[in-house]
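User: My instructor asked us to take a sequence, write out its structure as tokens, and then describe one feature of it. I'm not sure where to start. Here is the sequence I was given:
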Amino acid sequence: MADHQIQQGKQPMRSGFFDRDAFRKKSRTILVLKTAVAGLFFHVDENSDEGRKLLKSLTPGTELCLFRDTDNEHDKWAISVYTSDDRELGYVTRFKNETIARLMDYGKVFHAYVDEPPEPPKDATEARRTRTSTENYLLPFSIYMED
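Assistant: Let's start with the prediction itself. The structure tokens for your sequence are:
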């Protein structure tokens, strides 16, 4: 017999020499939004011992859960923010949530993590340009999309 391979159907001649898994699409995460929890003080009382304990436990890197709140009567694009032990913290601000909500409705998966508190704005103009009035930067977080 000859010391060579015979091509089978549409299979490339050298296909047996490559690791097929190396060419499969790898999943990645994409930073979509850096924001802060809106409505935090409607859900967490920072003046109570329980509220202070909860806020202190949310250190940078803590994973948060995002849920699409389609029944919200005030915002049709509402996205609720919860802790991993199912404690509601608030929402993604209505001024920044529509694109993420549409992608969630489409089936995209998002992850959120608590961030370090950002530097305070240098002046009122920068604050108006970068933050909405509903965001509480006591609890900033980042949202990532799986691709």
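For the description part of your assignment, you could build on this observation: Strands lie at 29-38, 63-68, 79-83, 88-92, 110-114, 135-146. Try explaining in your own words what that tells you about the chain.
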